[in-house]
From TrEMBL:
Residues 95-184 form the Formyl transferase N-terminal domain. Gene3D superfamilies: Formyl transferase, N-terminal domain. This is Formyl transferase. SUPFAM superfamilies: Formyltransferase. InterPro entries: Formyl_transf_N, Formyl_transf_N_sf. One of its GO terms (molecular function) is transferase activity. Keywords: Transferase.
């Protein structure tokens, strides 16, 4: 199995859990996208004001990250998971899974299944070169909360029953592939935009393992959910502050 990720605590949780169940895992770790590229891409989709507002949220919220360390440690303990970088798993550094080097490295590994978590979207040309099942872990309930910050937006929308995570097949859309498994959680009042994804990930290692087991056994059974489908992004700073100050949703 090959895991493709840009790295971080949440991917490490899943990599450690998968490594405890499966013996042959290799990680392809992408370089993070630059903030300049992020802003330009968002501006093309949503306009410059919204794109800069989203960047401001990302910057401002970092100052509160240290205030959530106790809650983050509590989540890890509660679910018995580790966010430490797994020392015994081979990690190959790549610029992008979508460039020639990244695709060649993936092809050479000949995986039986590819598992994506917190990485770039696969371009159609990349996806077309992968003959095995490609799965993705998404910190949100599909199809209602595709994209980013699914847990946050579920709370903002008073939709607590759809605070959760999804493991799905990968197609050319944004979290639009067939759903394999979902899990749901109840966040604490101590949770914030920093710990929502951590909670969703820590509570969902079981569905990641089951999806990979199914893929290796040739027993994938994707399904669709008849619900409104929408792609979400980071909240712009004015919306983040409004929901935090007025509703306590940080």
């Amino acid at each position: 199995m090959v895991v493709v990720t840009a790295g971080g605590d949440n991917p490490n949780i899943l990599i450690n859990a998968l490594a405890a169940r499966f013996s042959d895992i290799v990680v392809l770790q992408e370089q993070p996208e630059s903030k300049a590229l992020f802003v330009r891409r968002r501006a093309r989709k949503l306009g410059w004001a919204t794109a800069l507002g989203q960047l401001a949220t990302m910057i401002a919220s970092r100052f509160g990250k240290r205030l959530t360390r106790r809650r983050a440690a509590e989540i890890l303990r509660s679910y018995g998971v580790s966010a430490d970088k797994p020392p015994s798993i081979p990690v190959h550094q790549i610029a992008s899974i979508n460039d020639a080097e990244g695709r060649a490295r993936l092809t050479a590994l000949q995986p039986a299944v590819v598992f994506l978590v917190s990485c770039r979207m696969l371009k159609p040309a990349t996806l077309a070169t992968i003959p095995c099942p490609v799965l993705n872990f998404h910190a949100g309930i599909n199809p209602q909360y595709r994209g980013l910050m699914g847990g946050y937006w579920a709370l903002v929308g008073n939709d607590l029953e759809n605070f959760g995570a999804t493991v799905h097949l990968v197609d050319e859309g944004v979290d639009t592939g067939g759903i394999l498994y979902q899990s749901r959680q109840i966040p604490s009042r101590a949770d914030t935009i920093h710990t929502y994804p951590l909670l969703q990930t820590a509570a969902s290692t079981d569905i990641a393992i089951r999806a990979v087991e199914d893929a290796l056994a040739g027993y994938l059974r994707p399904f669709d959910i008849a619900a409104p489908s929408r792609q979400w992004y980071h909240p712009p700073v004015w919306a983040w502050l409004w929901n935090g100050l007025r509703r306590g949703i940080w």
